[in-house]
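Researcher: Next entry in the queue.
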Amino acid sequence: MAENTKRRKVLALLAGGLVLGVGTAITLAAWNGSEFATGNFAAGSFNLEGATDSATGTYTDHDTAGGAAGLEFTLPLSENMTPTDVVYAPFWVRLDAATTSPATLTAVTIDGTGTNAANLSYEVFEIEAAATCDATAVDSGTLVASGADLTSLTAGDSVGLTEGADADAGAPAQLCFVVTAGADLEQGEVASATWQFTAESN
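Model: Structure for this entry, 202 residues:
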């Protein structure tokens, strides 16, 4: 009898243990919730363009050597250069209306060809956008690039360009090219040069 009572107690404890186990499993059910976040990212636009006629003239893209803008140099009275002659040509650059960030313009390379490429030196200055590209303007200008001939380039200061706003392009900057004939300029020979400038967004 006592043994049966003991057995009942053991069974009752086991049963109680089983009930307790089921109760513990039920209380482990988790409450949870979620939060989600999303973001949209749009890239801006960037385009450099140039003009040879004026600060408010006809701007187009000249983004390859083959499509380089033809600079219009002021020629001496003879229409041909002789030793010590100096000629000037203006070129305006700006960021177009769709450009969304300012930029820094720097001189990158020059490619000079022809017999007299070694006998012509040059300087490029940033001058006021509305100024006349001549000796007076470059005296107060900022040197952007120079070379002892048409095959070498020493970069000078960079040029700051402002971004476009609404339907308006950024403010134009004028580059004034100054080419000087050396004492060894050869008669009847020619030379040509192509300068490359690169604008990098800030």
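Model: The chain has two helices and nine strands.
Researcher: Noted, moving on.
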